[in-house]
Design goal:
Layout (H helix, E strand, L loop, with lengths): L2 H17 L7 E6 L4 H13 L4 E5 L6 H8 L4 H5 L2 E3 L2 H5 L4 E5 L12 E3 L3 H8 L5 E5 L8 H4 L4 E4 L11 H13 L17 H17 L8 H13 L5 H18 L6 H4 L3
Parallel strand pairs: 1-2, 1-6, 2-3, 4-6, 4-7, 5-7
Helix pairs in contact: 2-3, 2-8, 6-8, 9-11
């Protein structure tokens, strides 16, 4: 290989690695009902260390601000100033196209559909973060994320720890996950990217439309429809949904509903004797 070719190859490798990094400006930390103000401040400091520029807290804005700022230190004061408080996790995740839920439970529930180790998370997030906003969701200190919370996530991540003591401080979990993303430098291959995905609000509206239609056609059990919808969520979680995909699915649901009420002139209905 000549000098020119070697130089070109080195430039490509440097550029490729840089482009394969996680775009930290598209990463946000979401704390779901944290119990202690000190943990919010510590988490803000950790997020700031790893170049995360946004933090959202789910729950009432009644935490002791002085303690939050004391633990965050002055270096993360700007991040604390911009914390957005919202009433529900659904409200927090609405604008995001990709949601990562953290969990220490590795049981047999079918909610554990897509789970990766914290060490492997960045390889998945790097291409997604090029065109999409990504939320990292952390549960409360005592309960973590519930099954209902996990339903809102595209991917679940767990942090490997010793079996003798599995509990991790909230801010430590934030640091570990954010560090894995911040320090990722990609593989020695051409950079990849995922197109812009549908937002969480769009996807959840699609699931509501599907549930309504499934109930009307007796496809799912009426006694516990959300439980039966888990399998549907698992199906769609294995692939990225674009806004156009969601619109098509909701459009189909709308037409099925109209057809069932005799308000369309579908070919199949016209051919009936």
């Amino acid at each position: 290989m000549g000098l020119g070719a070697m130089t070109k190859c080195m430039k490509w490798r440097i550029k490729g690695v840089m482009e394969n990094q996680v775009v930290m400006s598209n990463i946000s930390v979401v704390l779901n009902h944290p119990k202690y103000p000190g943990n919010i401040g510590s988490a803000a400091r950790c997020a700031k260390n790893m170049d995360v520029g946004e933090m959202i807290v789910v729950g009432p804005q009644e935490m002791e601000e002085e303690e939050i700022r004391r633990m965050a230190t002055h270096a993360a004061a700007d991040l604390v100033d911009s914390i957005r408080y919202v009433p529900t996790l659904r409200d927090a995740l609405g604008p995001f196209q990709y949601v990562v839920g953290t969990t220490g439970r590795i049981g047999g529930s079918n909610l554990r559909r897509s789970m990766v180790s914290s060490m492997d998370l960045a390889e998945t997030i790097a291409p997604v973060s090029r065109e999409n906003r990504v939320a990292l969701v952390f549960g409360s200190e005592d309960r973590g994320l519930t099954n209902k919370d996990l339903q809102l996530c595209n991917l679940l991540v767990t942090i490997p720890v010793a079996e003798t003591f599995r509990s991790i401080n909230l801010s430590h979990a934030v640091m570990i996950i954010c560090y894995e993303l911040f320090s990722y430098r990609g593989k020695d291959k051409p950079p990849s990217r995922s197109p812009r995905l549908a937002s969480s609000d769009e996807v959840e509206a699609m699931y509501e439309s599907l549930k309504e239609i499934f109930l009307k056609i007796d496809f799912i059990n009426t006694k516990n429809p959300d439980y039966w919808m888990v399998a549907v969520r698992n199906l769609f979680s294995r692939t990225g949904l674009y806004s156009r995909d969601v619109k098509i699915i909701r459009g189909i649901c709308r037409q099925v509903d109209l057809f069932g009420r005799g308000r369309t002139s579908g070919t199949a209905k016209e051919q009936k004797p």
